[in-house]
Amino acid sequence: MSLELPTSVRISQQAKDQLIKLKRITGIKQWNVLCRWALCTSLADPTPPLVRSISADSNVEMSWRTFAGPLDAAFTALLAHRVTTSGEGFENLGDALNSHLHRGIGQLAGLLQNGDDITTLVDLAVPQASA
Q1: How far is CA 62 from the centre of its chain?
Q2: What would the pLDDT profile of 16-73 be if each residue is shown by its tens digit?
Q3: Is the terminal CB of the chain with fewer CB neighbours within 10 Å at N or C?
Q4: Residue 3 domain-assigned (yes or no)
Q5: What is the pLDDT of residues 91-109, one digit of tens each?
Q6: Does residue 39 fall inside a structural domain?
Q7: Would 130 be classed as within a structural domain?
Q8: Cβ-count burial of 16 within 10 angstroms (0-12 exposed, 13-18 middle, 19+ buried)?
Q9: Number of neighbours of residue 73 by Cβ within 10 angstroms
Q10: Quick check: is 73 in a domain?
């Protein structure tokens, strides 16, 4: 298995539409920031994402450097650890990245509804301690 990541990240049209919704709800304007949230959301889910081919049919594309930013090494390590220890069946980190990214975008789009805002997103990441 290859532990090399692709040089660019491209998403499907469906994921683009979901990201547009997330941008409107959260006020976060950058694709890469929302995509980072989505990747972390999926990686936090212990179930494996579907191992499938994802059509990169939208015009949203960013370099890996833009996607990961200063968290490049952390995201690479998280993906490599997940792929090598989970038995999810990916042939390379690029496939794992695409599956986790698209699953995470779908999860966030399903969790955040009109009327929510960025605090809902933060609450998902940092659940409040129950009183």
Answers
A1: 13
A2: 999 999 999 899 999 999 999 999 999 999 999 886 778 888 999 999 999 999 999 9
A3: C
A4: no
A5: 888 889 999 999 999 999 9
A6: yes
A7: no
A8: middle
A9: 9
A10: yes
